[in-house]
Amino acid sequence: MTKKSKYKENYQKIFKRAKEVFECSDEIIIRWINSPALGLGNKKPSEMLNTKKGTEKVLNLLGQIENGTFI
Questions:
Q1: Among 7, 36, 38, 69, which one is most buried in terms of CB atoms within 10 A?
Q2: pLDDT confidence bin for 69, thresholds 50/70/90
Q3: Is the pLDDT of residue 18 over 80?
Q4: Which string of DSSP letters, residue by residue, matches 1-63?
Q5: What value does the mean pLDDT take over residues 49-67?
Q6: Which residues form the Antitoxin Xre/MbcA/ParS-like toxin-binding domain (predicted)?
Q7: What CA–CA distance (Å, rounded) separates 71 from 64?
Q8: Of the candidates 20, 23, 48, which has an alpha carbon nearest to the alpha carbon of residue 33?
Q9: Is 38 exposed, middle or buried (0-12, 13-18, 19+ CB in 10 A)?
Q10: Structural domain spans, the chain
């Protein structure tokens, strides 16, 4: 699998999970994915999707947001 296809796969996974967590429009999800996130050290979720570890960090952040445990 190429890096580009892996990134796309990770993006789709994050998009789907964010849709479940935020329950909002695709446009808002895309905006969130491309905006700096405090829980990621002010990195954009989209910048984290090139690696498994980065993708897991974004998924963990979404889980924290969903459970209300993000501080």
A1: 7
A2: confident
A3: yes
A4: --HHHHHHHHHHHHHHHHHHHH---HHHHHHHHTS-BGGGTTB-GGGGTTSHHHHHHHHHHHH
A5: 97
A6: 18-68
A7: 9
A8: 48
A9: exposed
A10: 3-64
CA pair distance 10, 58, nearest whole angstrom? 10
Q: What is the mean pLDDT of residues 6-14?
A: 97
- The residue assigned the tokens 């979404």 is 62
CA separation, residue 59 to residues 1, 21, 40, 46 (Å) = 21, 10, 11, 12
The pLDDT score that the predictor gives to residue 71 is: 59
Q: Which two tokens stand for residue 59?
A: 């998924």
Contact (CB, 8 A) for 10 and 55: yes
Q: With contact defined as beta carbons under 8 Å apart, do 29 and 22 qualify? A: yes
Report pLDDT for 1.
78
